[in-house]
Amino acid sequence: MNICWNRIRLALVALACIALTGCDWVLLDSKGMVGIAQRDLILICIGLMLIVVVPAIVLTFVFAWRFRAGNTKAKYTPDWSHSTKVEVVVWGVPLLIIAVLAVIVWKSTHELDPYKPLDVAGEPLHVDVIATDWKWVFVYPDLGIATVNQLNFPANRALAFNITSNSTMNTFFIPQLGGQIYAMAGMRTQLHLIANEPGQFRGMSGNYSGHGFSNMKFIATASSNEDFDRWVAEVRSAPDALSFAQFKALAAPSKNAPVQHFSSVEPLLFKKVIDQFIGVGENTAAAAPAGTAAGAQVSQE
Residue-wise over 10-39: b if at least 16 C-beta within 10 A, else e? Predict the structure, then answer.
């Protein structure tokens, strides 16, 4: 009977291992400067913590075996209660690791600040990201175009995202390029990313927001400058324009929304989405940063 249960356990472990082979390690397969830095930070922190974890696990089995009841060769010292050497190792090593981790994390926290522009050559591509129920609207304020559930940009060019929500809280997340940032109604959050090479990367919301949340996904495509210019020309040939009224209709709850292109966008659309929740005219500068076409228009008001 015991042999039968052991076989069942081994079979379950084998099935679990087979199932794990289907997992996609997107967080460790980073394709952008920010994502690579975050991946390295994760691996370094795990490696440092394993300096304590691995010996603790190994010694647990060693002690259990060495001091088992049947081992008459093991030294029996019932009155032992203290060892300075053991105390130094048990407390000193973890404290040293914590100190090293503190320095690394403090430094990385400032270097990987999502609001901090990337130190790369060239002007960033500005994209306004608006989360709705349950789709993503991407507005390119400098290009005067917009898309739904499709994000295209040139590889090796910095991306400056301004993020908000037209409804419930979501998170804007492209795992292979960098960390996720919350999209919240009436607020503007920021994120700076870059793709080091051309490719297609999965984008999603990492925060549950209702019935259509599981399909709130998009494809982020990094391409050459030439291919990006062709894509922009294709979007500009679309028959539809995105006015604020059109956006309100578009933002109505829907699932599995198809990709849509808009050849023009109402000025300050991103600001107007935010103003719905904070009052018209308030926090105007926060809605459109300087350096974008929208920001320039805001500064003139």
Answer: eeeeeeeeeeeeeeeeeeeebbbbbbeebb
**Would you kindly state where each structural domain of the chain is located, as residue ranges?**
27-65+88-112, 125-300
Burial of 141 (0-12, 13-18, 19+ CB in 10 A): buried
Q: What is the pLDDT of residues 141-184, one digit of tens each?
A: 999 999 999 999 999 999 999 999 999 999 999 999 998 999 99
Phi, psi dihedrals of residue 260, rounded to the nearest 5° = -130, 150
pLDDT in tens, 90-147: 899 999 999 999 999 999 999 999 999 999 999 999 999 999 999 999 999 999 999 9
Helix (H, G, I), strand (E, B) or coil at 215: helix
The architecture in CATH of the region 125-300 reads Sandwich (2.60)
What is the C-alpha end-to-end distance of the chain, expressed in Å?
Answer: 81
Cα separation, 18 vs 226, whole angstroms: 42
**And the tokens for 40?**
């390295």
Q: At what angle do helices 293-300 and 269-278 cross, to 10 degrees?
A: 60
Q: Are strands 217-223 and 150-154 parallel, antiparallel or unpaired?
A: parallel
What 3-state DSSP class applies to 74? coil
Burial of 138 (0-12, 13-18, 19+ CB in 10 A): buried
Pick the closest to residue 170 from 218, 126, 123 (CA basis): 218
- What CA–CA distance (Å, rounded) separates 34 from 162? 17
CA distance linking residue 182 with residue 194, whole number of Å: 18
